[in-house]
Amino acid sequence: MTVNDDSFTNWKTREEIAESMIPIIGKLHREQDVTVLLHSRSLVNKSVVSILKTHRFARQIAGTELSVTETMPFLQALTTLDLGPSQIDIALLAETYRTDDRGLSVEEFTAEAVAGATGENKIERRESRDVVLYGFGRIGRLVARLLIEKAGSGNGLRLRAIVVRGGGDQDIVKRASLLRRDSIHGQFQGTITVDEANSKIIANGNEIKVIYSDDPTSVDYTAYGINNAILIDNTGKWRDRAGLSKHLRPGIAKVVLTAPGKGDVPNVVHGVNHDMIKPDDQILSCASCTTNAIVPPLKAMADEYGVLRGHVETIHSFTNDQNLLDNYHNSDRRGRSAPLNMVITETGAASAVAKALPDLKATITGSSIRVPVPDVSIAILSLQLGRETTREEVLDYLRDVSLTSPLKRQIDFTTAPDAVSSDFIGSRHASIVDAGPTKVEGDNAILYLWYDNEFGYSCQVIRVVQHVSGVEYPTYPAPAV
């Protein structure tokens, strides 16, 4: 395929190719439960411009822009294969093919690279797993959006109900409105209607029952046709095993907490220690947004360089537990106006590292400052390494981790010199390494890690839920270990 050198003609040609990708991507997703990725970013339900921008973004992490003219042949090759449920990264296919010197055709190379998802090797499409959201605040609504988005194939996870405290008139209408429009994350991608008579929200065809309860022990979920469900507690009201066990009612098989767990509740950071989850574990925590942001890059650095000690300083967006204006608060400083002040506060993320990385013997300390932005935070991770290195070596290593390692869904990488916090709203990664301010001198390294503490964290929660439900499908080509 030849492309005219004229910039506008070049753009129109790529636009036409991206447009032809959309029905192929959609059909693979609907009919075979295959999610097409580009550098770990899903292309399902994306627009023409979004597909082109995702290809262009590859320049920031791989050094060169990836063209749809390179990836389209691999996408077409996938349509000729008997694929089972999987995630397939066409950027990795294109890039590994570029360095392959065996003279294979695109079709032959693709068939070999995704062989684990074809023919007799492919896994069966699983029955959908019921999910209940207990609480419908900032994280609850974003998790709901993700669950609805991922229900497109008809398999996987199925949001059946949300449980909230009883409200006033038009309670369900107001909750649906908050799901439909979000001041930070924008409009819901789809349609939402309300069935007040039956206490249901219908989002993209998904019927979601709204259950009113002030006490988890009062609900029998089987009465709503819900069975063997995973309940996601977004309230943070109960954080130990005794409290969270109250959710184990008829119809609920497992409970996942979207806050740091206390006592013997396992704190899980997907990509790092999710494999420790036992089939009979009924109660899990997804730790905190900051823990999810720092643990994957900390593990990456410890694996390559060793870490002797470290300190994390989080510059964190304000949250709902702070006051808009000065008012009484149980915490010493959080009562002061969140939009007007920087507020020094505590973070449990550093101590939570020990639960997620028990083999890491280094002492990690931490503190936090809340600042007047509504979303996206940055963690400054200062480390004493086990050996001396250089800035260039560290950046090359972390760029490679973000592209090809088992942590590529957790760690992103940017070289954009003008990046600011709002640029990372909607990031699906647990953290994004900012190459520009990274500092390395001898055995000391300082990493700057952006993270969408709302949406990126919600994506990590969904990954944990997919894992425990058995609907986390394998990715091809397989990441390097």
The CATH H-level superfamily of the largest domain is: Dihydrodipicolinate Reductase, domain 2
CATH classification, class level of the largest domain: Alpha Beta
Strand order of the largest sheet: 8-9-10-5-4-11-12-13
How many beta-strand elements?
Answer: 21
Determine the number of helices (DSSP H or I, runs of at least 4 residues). Answer: 12
CA(first)-CA(last) distance:
35 Å
- Which regions have little confidence, pLDDT < 50, spanning 5+ residues? none
Proportion of residues in extended strands: 15-25%
The 3D shape can be described as globular
Main sheet characteristics: 8 strands, mixed
Give structural notes.
The chain is globular. It has an eight-stranded mixed sheet. Strands 15-16-14-17-20-19-18 form a seven-stranded mixed sheet. It contains twelve helices and 21 strands. It has three domains: about 5-120, no CATH class; about 130-260, NAD(P)-binding Rossmann-like Domain (Rossmann fold, 3-Layer(aba) Sandwich); about 290-455, Dihydrodipicolinate Reductase, domain 2. Helices cover about 30% and strands about 25% of the residues. With about 475 residues, it is of the alpha/beta class. Helix 1 (about 5-30) runs parallel beside helix 3 and helix 3 (about 70-80) crosses helix 5. The longest helix has 26 residues, at about 5-30.
